[in-house]
Each structure stands twice: as C-alpha cells, then as structure tokens.
Prior knowledge:
By secondary structure, chain D is mostly helical. Helices cover 74% and strands 1% of the residues of chain D. Chain D has one domain (6-486). Chain D has a two-stranded antiparallel sheet. By secondary structure, chain E is mostly helical. Chain E folds into two domains: 1-77, NADH-ubiquinone/plastoquinone oxidoreductase chain 6, subunit NuoJ (Four Helix Bundle (Hemerythrin (Met), subunit A)); 121-168, no CATH class. Helices cover 75% and strands 0% of the residues of chain E. Chain E contains seven helices and no strands. Chain E has helices at residues 2-22, 26-46, 50-75, 91-109, 123-129, 131-140, 144-165. In chain E, helix 1 runs antiparallel to helix 2 (26-46) and helix 2 (26-46) packs antiparallel against helix 3. The model of chain E has no long low-confidence stretch (mean pLDDT 87). Chain D: It catalyses: a quinone + NADH + 5 H(+)(in) = a quinol + NAD(+) + 4 H(+)(out).
Amino acid sequence: MLDLVALILLFPLIGTAVNGLAGKRMRKETVGYIACGAIGLSFLVSILVFCGLLLLPPEGRLFEKHLFVWIESGSFRSLAALQVDPLSTVMILTVSGVGFLIHVYSIGYMHHDKGYHRYFCYLNLFTFSMLLLVLSNNFLLMFIGWEAVGLCSYLLIGFWFEKKSASNAAKKAFVVNRVGDFGFALGVMLIFLIFHSIDFTEVFSAASHGNFETGNFAITMITLLLFMGATGKSAQIPLYTWLPDAMEGPTPVSALIHAATMVTAGVYMIARCNVLYMLSPFTMTVVASIGAATALFAASIGLVQNDIKRVLAYSTISQLGYMFLACGVGAFTAGVFHLMTHAFFKALLFLGAGSVIHALSGEQDIRKMGALKSHIPTTYKTFLVGTIAIAGIPPFAGFFSKDEILLEAFVRGNFIYWSIGAIAALFTAFYMFRLLFMTFYGESRVDHHTMEHLHESPGNMTLPLIALAGLSFVGGFLGIPGASAINHFLSPVFGGHTHAEIAGTELAGHSGHHGAWLPYLMMVVSTAIAIAGIFLAYQMYIKKPDLPKKLTDRFRFIHKLLLNKYYVDEIYDALFVNPTKKISVKILWKGVDVRIIDGSVNGIARLVGGLSNVLRLLQTGYIRNYAFYIVVGCIFIVVLAVFGK
Amino acid sequence: MITITHYLVLSAILFTVGVIGVLIRRNAIIIFMCIELMLNAVNLSFVACAHYLNSMQGQLFVFFTMTVAAAEAAVGLAIIVAVFRNKETVNIDDINIMKW
Amino acid sequence: MDSRKGELIRITTLLVSIVVFVLSLPLYFNFNAHAYEMQFVEKLPWIPSFGIHYHVGIDGISLFLILLTTFLMPVSILASWHITKHIKEYMIAMLVLETGMVGVFASLDLFLFYVYWELMLIPMYLLIGIWGGPRRIYAAVKFFIYTMTGSVFMLLAIIALYFLNHRATGEYTFNLLEFYRLELSFAVQFWLFLAFAFAFAIKVPMFPFHTWLPDAHVEAPTAGSVILAGVLLKMGTYGFVRFCLPLFPEASHVFIPVISWMAIVGIIYGALVSMVQDDLKKLVAYSSVSHLGFVMLGIFAFNIQGIEGGITQMINHGLSTGALFLVVGMLYERRHTRMIADFGGLTKRMPVFATLFLIITLSSIGLPGLNGFVGEFLILLGAFRSRILYASIATSGIILAAVYMLWMFQRVMFHEIIHEENKTLKDVSKREFAILIPLIMIIFWIGIYPNPFLRKMDASVNHLLKQTGEKAQTVSNLQTQNTAVIPKIDIVSETKAEW
Amino acid sequence: MTPVSIMTFNILSILPILILSGFGMIVLFVDIFSSRRWGEKNLLAYVSLLGVVLAAIFGRSPTGTTLFSFNETFTIDNYSLFFNFIFLLSTGLTILISHSYIRREEINHGEYYALILFSTIGMMLMASGADLLSIYIGLEVMSVSIYILTGFKRSKLISNEASLKYFLLGAFATGFLLYGISLIYGSTGAINLKQIASFIAGRGGIPDPVLLMGMGLIIIGLGFKVASVPFHTWVPDVYEGAPTAITAFMSVGPKAAGFAAFLRIFMTAFGSTHGEWQKIIYVLAILTMTIGNVIAIAQTNIKRMLAYSSIAHAGYLLIALVAANNMGISGTLFYLLAYTFMNIGAFAIVIVLSRKGDECLQINDYAGLGFKHPFLAIAMTLFMFSMAGVPPMAGFVGKFYIFSAAIKSGYIGLAVIGVINSVISVYYYLRITVIMYMKEPTRDFHPLTISPLIVVAIIISMIGTLHLGIFPSKVMEIAQQATLILK
Amino acid sequence: MSEYLFYIVAAITVTTAVYLIFEKNPVFGALYLIQTMVSLAVLYILLEAQFVAAVQIIVYAGAIMVLFLFVIMLLNLDIKEEARNALPFQRIPAILMGIALFTVICIVIRSKLLQGKQDQYTTAYVQSIGNTKLIGNLLFTDYLLPFEITSILLFVAAIGAIMLAKRKL
Lengths: 645, 100, 499, 487, 169
C-alpha cells in the first residue's frame, strides 16, 4: 500500500495539467470535478498509505520510495524520493483532507469567476507542491515543494491580477518568502557541508548518533538558517508582513494556503528536523522566543482590525507563533498537533468568513456587518464552532492543542513563555468573539443594496463548513491528555524527545516538583482565560456597544498603533525597500553605471577623438612646417643614435 | 694642413645653411635651390672622403648625385611651373589647400 | 524584394538551421560520458608553417554549449520572421554567426579559436547595426570595439603561449591539448591569465566591464539579443573554463578572490540596477550581468558542483534569458515599445502568452523545478563549499532576482489595462507558440530531470579539476607568497628566443 | 695597364627591368601612333599589363640561391623576388584600376603607364640593390616618376600642390639620406652593403659615432618613403591631392620598396648593430602607429583617412623591423603583400564611386551604399575588416605574424601598444561599414559606369585578401624562405 | 699654399651660401648659388677630383642653374613673391634647429673618421692613369647597372618635365 505513495502526488499533478492545458475549453463543472476528484483520490490514497503505515511496527514506520536521481554532481546527490513516516502521514492527511474540502467549497465560491479553470489549476498545483514538501525525503526536494507552494501562493494571491493591491500582495508574499528561502538554501548547503548528504535519514541519523555535541556551532547555524526559512514561510517575526496582505486572494485560498497548510510548512520543517534542533539549545530559544513574540504581537494587532479576513490572518500568525513556541520548547508533537487542529478550525473560520463575504457580495469590513445570525444560519453555526475552537473552550479541538502548548511552555520553557502564551490566548478569545459578535450579532449595519442579495451559501459551500466544524469539534480528541493517539503515532519521529513521556499520566513522574495536578490546573487556567476573553468581548460588543469607541478615544495612541500594525510595513519600506530603490536608481544606475563605468568607457573614446582633433592640427598643410618636423625628427634620431646609450 | 675634418665641417656648414634655408624661405624655387645646396654639401663630403680614403667610389657617387640633381631639377621646376600656371604664385605658404 | 522570395529565404534558412540542429544531436547521443578526452576530434593541417591546425573536438563542457547554439538558432530564425529589410543579408549573417559560435566552442587550436572568436563579431555587429533599434550604431560599434579590445590582449597571450611551448618542447604548435601540459612559472601565468581573463571578462560580461551589454541588447533585433544572451556571453564563461583554469591553474587560484568578488558585485549590482530599469530589454540585459555573475562564481569555486553548476547555468541562462528576449520581442512587435510603463494588464488579453511568460520569468528567477534552480543551486553549493562568505552574499542575489523579475512581470502583465492600445492585443500566434514551446519544454526538462545533462559533463569536469588541482599543487607555495605582490614582467626573458 | 675588373655580367638577372623599360617605351610609341581620340587608347593599358605580366613571368629564377650580378651591385635572391612580385602585383592592379579613372579624368596619356612601369623599375632596384648607390638610384627613379604621376592632373591645383609638396619634401629628405650615405662612406670606406657589414664585423660590431649618425640619417630618408612619423606629414596631403589610382599605387608600391630597402640595408649592412638602431625604430614605430591611428579617427575624407591608415600600417611594419628576427622579416613581406591587396582594393572602390567633377570622397557620401551596390559594399567591408585586422582576412594574419615576431623577440610592450592601436583603428575602419550599411543614403548614387578592368582588380584584391587570410600557409613559407637570405 | 686657398674658397662658399638664404631676389639667389658651386669646384680640384670639378661647373653651375634662372625669369618672379608669411614664428626655431644640427654633426665628425680600408686609388695611382679615365672605367664596369638606370631616370625626368610643363598636350 505504501508503494502507492507516488500516486498521492500524481493525482493533483494530473489535475493541474488537465485543467491548465484544457480547462479553458471544458465546462466549469468538469473542471471542478476534475480538480476535486484529483484531490479526493489523493486523499483516499493518503488514507491507504496511512493504513499501510499503521500495519508496520511503530519503530519501522519509515518507508522511502525512490523515483529517480534528480541532481547528482560529485559527492552531492539529491534524489527524487518520497518518504512516508508518521509525521508526513499526519501532514498528507491534513493537507489532502482539508484541501479536498476547500476544493469542494471553491466550486461554489468561485463559480462566477472568469478564471475558474485557472483557479483550480493553481489550487491543484498547490496541493501537489504541499504534498511534495511533506513527502520529500531530502532537504532539496523539500525545497522544491517549499518554493513551489510559495509560487502557488503567489499565483493565487495575485489571482485577481487586475487589482493592484492583489498583485502587490502577491509579489510581496513571494519576495518575503524568498528572503526566508535565502536562509533555507544556505542551511541546506551548510548541511551538505557538515553531513555530506542532504537525505533526511542520513543527516538525522548522523546527528542523533552523537557525532555532534549539543550546542555545536555548525548545527546552530544550520538550524538558525533553516528557521529563517521557516519565519518566511510561516509568517513569523520579522517576515510575517506578507500574510495579512495575502488576504487579497480568494477566500478559499486564504483558508487552504494561508491558514491550513502552507504556512505550517515552517512548523513541519522544524518538526522534521527536530533532531538537529534538539542539538542546539540556542536556536530552540530563538524559535521559542520568536514564536511567543509573534503569538502576542499578531494577536495584539488582531484586536482592532476591522477586516474580517485580516483578523483571521493575524490570528493565523498568532497561532503559528504558538506552534513555534511549542517547537521551540521541544514539544514538537504539541506543535504538530496544534498544526493539525489549527488547520481544521482555521480553514473552517476562513471558509465561514468566505461564506459571509459571499453572502454580502464581497463586503469584508465587519463594521458593515452585524446581525447576520439569522440570515446565514449554517455559516453562523459553523463559524461559531470554529470560534469556540480557536478560543480554546473545551472540548473543542483548539482547547487541547493550545492547552498542551501552554503546558509545555510552562513545563519545558519558563514562566515568561507561558504568560505570553496566556495573554495571547486571552487576546485570541477576545478578538475572535469580537469578530463573531460584530458579524453575527447586534444591529445590522449592512447597506440595503447588499441586504437584498443576502443569501445563504449553496450546499457545496456549506457542506465543507459542516465537515470542518465536525473536525474542529472532534479533532482535539486525538491528543486528549492521557490517551494521546497522536503522541503515540508521532513518537517514532520525535524519538526520545516526544512529549508522550511527559504528557498525560507520566507527567507527574517526569516533572515531579510541579506535581500531578499541574495539567489540570493548566486546563482550568486556560479555560478561564478564554472565558475572560469572551466575556470581555461580550461586554464590549454586545452589552455596551459604545465602550469600544470610548476606549479608542482614551487610548488613541495605542489604538492607532495597533490599527496600523505597529507601522511595521512602513518601517520596512523606509528601511529596506525605498533606500534600495533609491540607491539602485540614483547611485548604481545613474551614478555608477551611466556616469562612472559607461562614462569612462565613452570618456576614453571621447579622449581619443579629442586627441585626434588636436593632433590633426599638426598637419598644417605648410611645406615648411613639414620640413621643420623632419629636421626635429632628424635631430632626435641622430641624438638618439649617437648619444642614446 | 687641411684635414678631412675641415672639409667635413665646411660640408656641415653648407648642409645646415641649406636646411635653414628650406625652413625659412617661402619661394618654392629658392627652397629648391637650398635643397641643391644641401646636395652640394653632401657632394663635398663624398669627394673629401674619397680623397682621404684613396677611393674612387665617392667621386662616382657625386657623379650620380649630379645626374639625379639634374633630373630632379627638370621635374621640380616643371612642377613649379605647373603650380604657377594654376595659382600664379610660387609662395609655398599660399599653396595650402590640403591640411589636417 | 517581393514577399515570396523573402518567404523562401526565411524557410530555407530555417530548414538549414534545423538540419544543423538535427545533425548536432548525434553529438549528444554518441557522446561517451565516461571519457574526459576530446571526442569527435578532427585535425587537419591548416597553416603548417606556424603549426596551426584545423583542430576541433568536444568534451562534456563544450557539448552542451554547441547543442545550445544549434538549438537556439532555429528558434532565433523563427523569431526573425518579421524582418522585412534585407532578409537575405540578415539570414546570411545569422548563419555565419552560427558558424563562428560553434567554431569557438569546438576549437582545440588556439589560433583557430581566436579566428572564430573574432569572426563571430562581424555578423553580430552587422545584426545590431543594420537591424537594430534607434541607437543601433552606437551600440554596434561599442560592442565591436569593446570586445575587440579584450580579445587583442588574448591574442598576445596566445602568441606568448606559442613561444613558451616552443621553448619547453621545441615544437611550434597552437594545440590547446599540448598547452595543457605546459608547466609555466607563476609570473608568466599571472600575466597570461590576466590577458585571457580580460577578454573573457568583457565577453561574460563581468562587472565592471559590462556596459556594452545593455546597449547591445537594447538595440539588437530580437534574434540578435537571443543569440547575444544565449550564446555569445557563454563564450566568456566557456573561455574561463576551457583556457584560464587549466592553462594557468596557479594564477587562477590566486585570482579566486578577485574574480569572485567581481562576480558577487556583478550579481548584486546587476540585480539592483536591473530592478529599476524602465526598459524591458535593459532590464533583462542587466539581469544577465547578475546571472553570469553566478556562473563565474561557480566556475571559480573550483569544485565539481561549482563548475557543473556553472555549465548548467550557462545553458539555463541561454534558455531563460533567450526566451525572455523572445517574449520582449513579441511584445515589441505588437506595441513597438519596450517601456514597462506602456504595458500593464496584458494577462487579460493574452492569457496563453502570460502563462508562457510567467514560466520563463520563474525559470529566470530560479524556481526549483525549473532549470534555473539546478544551476544556481549547484553553483552556490560549490561556492559554499569553497568560501562560505562568497556564497552567502551571492545567495542574496536570488532574493533580488525575485524582486526585479516579478516586479517587471507585475507591471507588464498585471493590473488593469490603462493604455488603449493594449486592449486590442492578440495572444500568441502559432509561430510564436512554436518558438517558445521548445524552450519551455527544455526549461522543464532540465528543472525536473537534469541528471542526463550533468552525467555527460562529469568526466570532463573531473578531469578539468584534476588538471587544475594537480598543477596548482606543484607550485602551491607560490600562491601564498604571490597573492599580494604583482610579479614583475619576466615574461620577456622567458619568451625571448634566439634570433 | 688599365685594370679592368671582370664583370659578372648576367643580363638575365635584370630581365624584368629590361622588360618593363622596354614596355615603357612601347607604351609611349603606341601612344604616339594611336589616335588622338580618347576612346582608342584602351590599348595602352593592355600593353602595359602585358609588360607587367611578362616581367612577372620572366622575373622568376631558381630560388634558394643568391645571385650577384653587375659586380655586386645587383642581387637576385628570394627576398628580392618576393618584393618584385609585390611591386609587379601593385603595378598590375594599379593599371587595372587606372584604366577607367584616367579616361574619366582626361589624363589618358601613354606617359602615365610608362611612368608607372619606370617607377616599378626603381622599386625593383631598391629591393635588389646590393650597394647604397643602386638603392639610391632606384629610389630616385621611383620617386621622380611618382612626383610626376602625383601632379598628373595638371589642371587641378590640388594635384599640383600635392606634387609640389611631395617633390620638395622628398628632395629634402633625400638630402638627409645622401648625407647619411656620405658619412657611412666616410666611416667605412665602402658603399657596398656586404663590405659595410664586414667592416663593422671587423671592428667587433662596435660602430663609431659617424657610422651611427649615418645610419640615423638613412632612417630619415627611408622613413620618409615608408611614411613613418615624424616624416609622414606629406602623406595625407599628397594622398589626397594625387590622382586616386596613383594614391593607391603610392600607398603600396613605394612603401613596399621603402621597406625592402630598409630591411636589406639594416639587416645586411647593420645587422650586427641591431641594438643601436632598434631603439630608434622602437620609438618611431610607437609614434607612427599611434599618430596615424589617432588622427585617422577625425578624418572625413576617405583618401585622407586611408592615408593616415597607411601611416599606421607603416607603424605596424616597423614593429617587425624592431623585432628583427626572421619571423619579423617574413611577417613584413607577408604583411606588405596583404596590404597591397587590401589597400588597392579599397582605393579601387573609391575610384569606382567617384565621377568626373564629383569625386565622392567624403566618407558620408558612402551612406546607404551597402544595399545599393552590395558587391562594392561587401568588397569594401572586406578590405576594411582586413585592415582592421579581423580574422579571417589577410590583415589579421599579417598582424598576427608581426605581433608574434615582437613577442618572440621579447618586445611585449611594443606588441601591447600595437594591439591597442589596432583597436583604435577598428573605430575608423568600422565607421566606413557603419556608414555604408547603417546610415540612410544622403545622396543618390548615379548609375555607375564600372569598367570590367576595375572589377577584375577588385575581385583579385578580394581573393587575395581572403586567400591570404584563410590559407596563408604557402605564402608564409615563401616569405620565410625569402628571409633566410638576409641573415 | 693650398691651405690658404682652402680657407679663402671656403669663406666664399659659406658667404655665398648664407647670402642665398637671405637674398630676397631669386635671380640673385641663383647667382649666389652658382658662385657657391663654382667655389666647390675649386675645392674638388684641391681634392684631386678634376672630373667631378669639371662636371660641377659644366652640368651643375652651367646647365642646372641656368635652368633655374630660366624658370625664374620665365615666371617673372619678383621680390614680392614672399610677401605672405604664414609661419613667422618658425624662423627663430628653424635657425636654432639648424645650429643644433650643425653642433651635432660637428661633435660626431670630431671622432675618429676614415676607419675604413684604404683603397688602391692613391694620388699617384690616379694621376698615372688619369682621373677621368678611371671614372669612365668604373662606370662601365662596376657601376654599369646604376649608370644605365640613370638613363631611365633622365628619360623619366624628360617625360615628366614635358608632361607637367607643356602648355598643351
């Protein structure tokens, strides 16, 4: 069954090719069926592969499928080979599963769009790339997927290319990702330099067999560089700025790429390289700190945003921060677990948001919504599920995963990580419910024209919503403390470092001084935090609708700062973008190139030409003059001949 | 005692005078005459050397030089005449169409 | 000239070039990948009194450059269909150009090499000068003189080698393979390397010798730009690989920092300047400076990855940048402008074109899965293995590449259509499609399955490294001593022969 | 008893000279007896051509040996035979290109051809002369003929002026040459080159000041003929003013003859004092190349431009003289032959394009020629690229040869300056092609009347330029054999 | 005796030569040159070159210079001819250059001269045969070829003079 793994990649690729080459001439339905079918089949194969993997003993759950030698040069060798292990299985299931739902949803959502086939072509290509990313067995092949998902993200963000903001956002996404890729590429090279191989198995076994002491400089550099790539792809400080802008793309794209799958590539990558990361405490600290900082930072921006998708975008960044926090403290399983639950509920939220937007004919500003609860009930209900899930109310999925991260942060990390996480959790609950309240409750601020067209989304959009709502509800039980299925499943990947040892029942023994009561206390605390957030939102947006305005007036500066996202984009522009452009134009092009280099080349030519015009004046046309030159030459020659020893 | 050096110095003087004449005169014919003067200076040097070397080659050379001078004179004067026909002058400073 | 006759000339030339391409294919298939020796060697006496032979042959390094040449030629001729002025002369120039280019890559006799090297200047000069844009004369003359300036020094160096070889072996020959065996003192190597490198650096072009390139590219007709970018620039990098490294190994080693820094500056500088251009062709031209910087960096990494990457990147650059010029040419044919500001929103009118353009753009950016990545990665890997710092700085070039290419693509293809003229543009014609598709197919091929290419060059590159490495070791002490001091010209006494 | 030395009288050795002088006379007679009308004077050209061809055929003698005749005043060796070939070639080509030109300019006289043939005799004597007297007489025969030919367009002031300038300056320079010879005679007691050489050798190769000064003065006289800076100043003016066909002739024949004498005197007589004169030639070579090339850039008249180009080429040839190895000498021979083809070819084009009263000499007049008269333009392009030294034309091989010689003798600096100059020269040679192909015509070309003879000349030049460029081997070997004599 | 003669004749020669280059009237200039040549002929006799001396007077001073005079008079040149002076500034440098040249020559000829092999034609030997006869012998033996070529030269000069100067062809 495992041999089928290549098919997982093949189906989306076929879908891409068919839709890309012939999509224009096919009926829209056909295009949609092909695209969904491709992903659906891929999902089915993924399940088969998963089953195949389960049949193997836990320690032997590693299967590699060699396709062909991709690049070979000297000792450098990169195979086109796929690797199936628990981690990648989790990923392919999530990607193809959530992906399938979003494909289905898109059929309805994009139905009226002119670039229908193009859309599905890109979407399929994306799924292919993401699957390649998670299935690859070496760093370079992973890098292909890594970049290819970036490309698809670029294409899909800029899907409505006629909008200037969309194409700008697309370019920004690609370029910022490239900055991260810069690190990634260097990381890969450094890996090759240190390990003489870029195969996961070889690198990790070399690393885990004690050839490198903890804190090894090279390993630290490798991990830092790889993490740089992760900050780009997973939108962490300082490279997160592209993600909010990426909301210019169609909403299902935001759901799939910028919430559920692609942005988690960084987390996946770090989880994949956990062996290396564990060897570098410094990097781990960096990862955790950046994760924590991002979680808080993005959440704080999310507090005041008014665009429904932007709120979700910042929420995504914040949640990704959590995942990195988890990885950073060594709780990779927690990170991956959160990755998975997040995929469910964030996809759900985005799709819900899409449904809202769809209903409101494209309106995205939550200040112009309100009281939609009764108009689009299915959307509302599912959205509510998602909101609760992300806010961390038990027993929804988000609760388990987030709680686990906070617990780990506290246990393995320190109090600061935990408190930052907790504050971010508070914020999360607050802004998510603020979003919910402003959209679905209170008075309607929808204008009349839009109101007339208000309608619930068609079945092919609501069904995925319901499915995802279901997953958001039950997904958490995979990692329920004490009987964590996902811990067990992933433990071969994360080896001795898995948190299975400390989670659940074994926790007490491992971290004795905290006592066995700690996890439960944590659960209570985090639930309390979530409820506090919700309460706050309720107070501000349902009970006292004029309170936000007062607060805004009161803390004008902070509000403005948050509303403008700490001016980070502007700072980046002023620090990097504009000076680069200015230097390029004024100094490099017009100065160095035109003036100095070209100028000196032409200057030499002009000099010779000028010299020519001067020297030709010697040719006066007077015979006596010429005779004079001869005499001068004569004296010169004679003197040189006779005395020139 | 008159040595070869005397003759050669005299020859040098004549040659130099001829050169200076070429450089400062403007009448084409006079310039030509100055050139003839230079040739004469050379002839003197040839004959003097021949004498002191007990050699005949110098004298022979002078004979040829004179023949050449005659030929040159014929051609040169013809050229000057041709120029004069067209330009009504033999001042070489006026004969200056082509330059630079 | 009536149009039927013109059509006949075009078709004939196209057929000729296709036949040449087909005939060149056996080179690939019959090439023995395990042998480093020159293959398909032809050696006939040409000027025996000087020991000059018509001596050609190929190895894994030149194989692909020849194939690239013969491949790009039909493409360029197909792209010249719109030429109506003096078709016959144009086509003759193209074919002569092809002769020169193939000759350069195949020559194993340095005299022959130089002859081809210069020969190919003339048709290119005429192509730019006669069929070029408004400033074509300036560009053509600059191109010619600039290139010539470099190459005359190479000529002197070739002559010097000739005499040095004679002094060492007593044999008068221009045979490159004989020269490979020469043991030259460091000082001699130093100066000869400089002379060769000057010629090649201008051709590459390396920063700061690049200024002829933007002018020539901008003014040349589309096919001219394609050939220029696709093949001519490769002569420079090829020259480094074929001559500088194996002939002057110690000097090459000493020059690693200089060349590498020039390459790095070229990478970044080219990218930055390219970014702010408002003329499409100029943008692509400066991007070539950047791309070729990578190639040079790879070559001077002195390891197998670097050099194989360099060679791969030569091919890639030929394909991608050639294709970019073709694309720009297609736009120019439609709108008669190359200003980026005159476009915008073309995707809406020309979706197929947009797709092809995008693929080419991405290939130029070096997106994994397309050809550009393979070369760039290997180069950087090679460079990284030799000097981490260089590779790290150079890698930032891949960020900039994304910036300038995508920004350009965005401004040309995205947004609303602002200009009225752009609203009636036609999508790619069948001919244009036929021009681009082969390129794109190879772009994908190299990107996805580059190994057949790399395998064929393995043996040759290994041999090259062995030559460079072994020779370098013998005088390895020298380089450390001489890095700072420029050796005095004692070449005089070394070459001076008895009368 | 009168001592009468026994003469090595070998009439065959001067057969070409005899043939040429004979045909010179015949042409004059034909002229007298032919009709006064211009149209029937075609015969003159054919008769003189016949003379040249016959001279070329009978001028051959067994190679590999040196034959002295006329009591060692005349040498027949491979060296002089090679030069004779160059002279006859340039004479023949000049006659071919003159035919239509002198008819158009209405100077179609028998004297024209006769003088060309006589001046060729002078050149041959310069190449073959074994003593300074013969060389001097040869030089005068050549020069006087050309003084006259320069002024052959009697009614044109420009031609008169050229003639006067050439004559006065030529005579002036000859004065220096003669003075030099007299000093050498005074110092060595000999005017025979071999005797001079043995005298110097007898003194251990250390020359005394008088000899050195004589040598310097000879350099002036011959430098004037080969147009070396600073004795080049007549060249542009005279080239511009002379009838174009004569300009062509002047730029190849006398230059070759000058180098023939230069090489023979300096290699045979002063070969052992190489170190003394090479430094002078070194400086002259640099000056000549540089000034010739640099000033050529600013020229607008094509004849003047070619004049400066001719100066520059003299500079390259002087490099070979500095190198003074057998490669340099054979390179000189090769180069001169190549130069004959390309330069006469270029002038042939100039002649074809000019019309009576409208000489069409401005370079800008060539605009648009490229596609109006493709054959002429291609030919011109070929000659220009050849002169610029672009392979695969003859000029390239010549330059290659000369720079090789310089490097072989260790004159790297000179070679570097040489190649830089050759790059500068590319600019103005290229300009012609630029104007021909890349500029729109500024004037209309009247239907040209192209005589078949000149087309033959152009084709011969083209073939020569290409053949020497692509298959130089044979000629190189001959040139190399020719130089063995001098050593 | 001959010493004094030498100095006197040399003085005359130099004086007339200097007069030549400063004389305004070309006719007088020609006459001065004739005088110079005649003086040189005297010196030739002092040097025992009688034939050359004779030719000097007959051909040079006689024929050639008369041709000059003839042309000067034909063209009716007068003093005004040199009115225009385009290069007045060249005068002083020219004279300085002349002096420099003279100085160099003098320095050179101060050194050893006549190092060459002494030939057989001593005064006694020449007188025994006769100067003219010897020259004739040599001309028709050793220097036959140049001598014959000279005829071509003269022929060329004749043609040229006619070509260039004849009023109507």
